[in-house]
Amino acid sequence: MRYFVLVYDRGLAEILQQYEYAEGQRERALDDARRLQLERVFDHDVEVVVLGGKSFDDLKKTHSRYFKNAEEIISAA
């Protein structure tokens, strides 16, 4: 399983930053996510998530909300 850290702006409905980690780098991904969260602790529209999957394309299926633009999110509601 690969790991992905996403820095997502809920207000803009877009990924600001993304990082990919190889299998076996779970702890590094978690450490980096904690650091990124601390950097944005006062920005309440930004969320930092760690996701695991076989590939980035799989994440687009399982966690699609992070990959839709604002118009797609509104039309789906």
Notes on the protein architecture:
With 77 residues, the protein is α+β, with helices and mostly antiparallel strands. The protein has one domain (2-76). Helices cover 36% and strands 31% of the residues. It is built from three helices and three strands, in the order ββαβαα. It has helices at residues 26-39, 56-62, 70-76, and strands at 2-9, 14-21, 46-53. Strands 2-1-3 form a three-stranded antiparallel β-sheet. The longest helix has 14 residues, at 26-39. The radius of gyration is 13 Å and the shape is flat. The termini are far apart. 10% of the residues are buried.
Concise summary:
The chain has 3 helices and 3 strands.
Computed CA radius of gyration, to the nearest angstrom? 13 Å
Uncertain residue ranges: none
Shape: flat
What structural category arises from helix and sheet content? alpha+beta
Overall number of structural domains: 1
Number of strands: 3
* Arrangement of strands in the largest sheet: 2-1-3
Name its key features:
alpha+beta; 77 residues; three-stranded antiparallel β-sheet; 3 strands
Structural topology:
Elements: E1 2-9, E2 14-21, H1 26-39, E3 46-53, H2 56-62, H3 70-76
Antiparallel strand pairs: 1-2, 1-3
